[in-house]
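W.,

You were right to be curious about this one. When I first looked at the sequence I had no strong expectations either way, so I just let the prediction run and decided to look at it fresh. Below is the sequence, 162 residues in total, followed by the output.
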Amino acid sequence: MKNKFVKVIALGCLFLLMGSCNSSEEKPTAIVIDKEQIKIDIQARENQFAEIYNSGELKKIGYYDDNAVTYYQNMAPIRGKVERLAFFKADIEGNIDNKISFTTTEVFTSNDGVQVLEIGYYTVVDSTRTAINTGNYMSLFEKRDGQYVCLRDMSVSDMPLE
């Protein structure tokens, strides 16, 4: 009888131990955000944008969401693909020899890395590579199908008013 009692107690302890090890609660997996890699990815998007913009092949720019809004100083917001393309065409026609470049200085990411706020500066040079305009910008990106697209951006020149 004593032997049977010990076996029942041992079996009960075993089941209790097994039940405590196999918790039915799923613990959330921590998402690791590599901000340096995201900064590299965003800078690559900026470089691609500048290259296409400087080439004049504006229809190839895949940088913006179709419904993105851009805020430049001293003008109404540019809303959507049609307005943006018209603005870019007018800008290029008046500045055919000028080239723009962008430098990402900081990125701030959402907890899941899907949204990124970029802070950076831009430089516009003329045909002699003399800076004719410089300034700062902020862009809000969202990752879609493995690539960041710009939803909102704004920029401001840091050149003195004439």
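Here's what jumped out at me. The CA atoms of residues 70 and 153 lie 5 Å apart. And, maybe more interesting for your project: Residues 35-55 form the longest helix (21 residues).

Coffee later to discuss?

I.
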